[in-house]
## 1
Amino acid sequence: MTAASISSSEMLGRLVAFDTVSRNSNLAAIEFIRDYLDGHGIESRLTFDDDRRKANLFATIGPADRPGLIFSGHSDVVPVDGQDWTGDPFKLREADGKLFARGAADMKGFIATVLAMVPALKERVSASRNANGPPVHLAFSYDEEVGCIGVRRLIEQIGMAEAKPLACIVGEPTMMQPIIGQKGLHVFRCQVHGHGAHSSRTPYGVNAVEAAAELVAKIKQMARRIRDEGPFDHAYDPAYTTIHCGTIKGGTAQNIVPADCDFTFEIRNLPGHDPAALVAEIERHAHEHLEPEMHAVEPGTGFTLQPRDPLPDYEIAEDHPAVAMVKGALGANAVGKVAYMTEAGLFGRAGIPTVICGPGDIAQAHKPDEFIQTAQLQRCESFLLRLVESAHM
């Protein structure tokens, strides 16, 4: 691929044409990015999933032996199934200063801007070398939308870099506002083991659906308590930890006491509000208040909780040098915090100062006729250049 210049909008059109819904491979998109970077003399390193159907990409502009800036984005998008789109969701459509396509806002708009700015970024990095300016790392992951899976391997790769990164920008759509905090996400599957019986003999069975309902009611009671009593951080919306039951399945027929029931629940916790204490309260209620009655009928009944891989909460101090650097490049005074998940918590856990900031509106994410404003791409372009110019050791 030649190193011809390309606009952010044109690059976005190329990226959205790849159907990188999380259930699909992202290799075609990653290989396109790798070839594009190669055309600019930038070498990429790929890390694959176990099936080698998906890959992360990591590339460095400038000297790798200095602390650098990471520009991070995920390549996957959510499905369009069942959504009423005006046009083809994988073909960019422009109208009234807006660019419509799946992933336009979340978050191929940021990746497209970074890639379009590669020639300018190379120039800025090269100009700053004599002043110990930082390199720029590009970190593009797979399977963020289904649990921030790929970035875990990508961060391991970054950990082997020659110099610890100076800061990371996760370019989720924030309307170019710097975000310095996000909630954690902890998801659990609860298996309820009952004892089947004919419904005419309900006292001799253990109804797994009813036992599940009692524990779900306890979880709802806890959610209301936290809503009313906190703790609170009004920089978030909602300003408190939330607990939510998302799915439930059990029973086979109306005239059979159900032997099994499964449900899932999640905790989105404020930083500093320990989710382990909430899980312990749920387990204690199950074991101490619900299981004794179940065991009186059949000792083998009860509850089993299975956690999924957690996504950690994250906050960085507003006066941290990385935040000050981002605010300066944006010309911004205000910062924010968000309830939705990003890869920032995993970068932060790895000891990399991270700020969430990118073009587009999160309100457009996952919706039919998702769009990003061209003005947001332009603002992101200016931000990236100023950030590289202003970054210092």
## 2
Amino acid sequence: MKVAYFTDFFLPAINGVITSILNVSAGLIDRGHDVTIYAPKSKINPDHLPKNLHVRLIPSVDSYIYPQWRFALPMTPAMLMAIKNDKPDILH
């Protein structure tokens, strides 16, 4: 099954939502599912990602309130086409 996660927050920030998404994604991947996370563009260390996890980064801007958080910009036609081409079975 192809699973697509959409999140407002992602690495390098660490919080309960990010930890939960990474843990659930790792569990789904271990069970043979294909997982893609759509998250605001930031500097992500690939060593912190589960093996075989796909990440699509959405253009984003600094939050200025919290230095590690970024706000995703509205979806572009290119990003919508990428989601359509990925053909996820489940959106979360």
